Amino acid sequence: MRHEFRVVYTPIEDGWFLAQAPELPGAVTQGQTLDEARAMIKEAIELLLETYRENAERDAPGNAVWETLAVETPAL
Length: 76
What we know:
Elements: E1 8-11, E2 17-20, E3 28-31, H1 34-59
């Protein structure tokens, strides 16, 4: 499944870049270069979504009904 998230890269001290996906609280990381920050935030988002899904499956009641829902959002 493909997800798209906007990511903000902010230069910080010593030439590092802070990377965060504002739509996903907790998806924050950094890298020494923009490419490294990009790779790190991609991994952070993947791990965060995996954890959210695992927690939802574990915590859902046995009689829960699951479905996949597609949502279109306006382009920014």
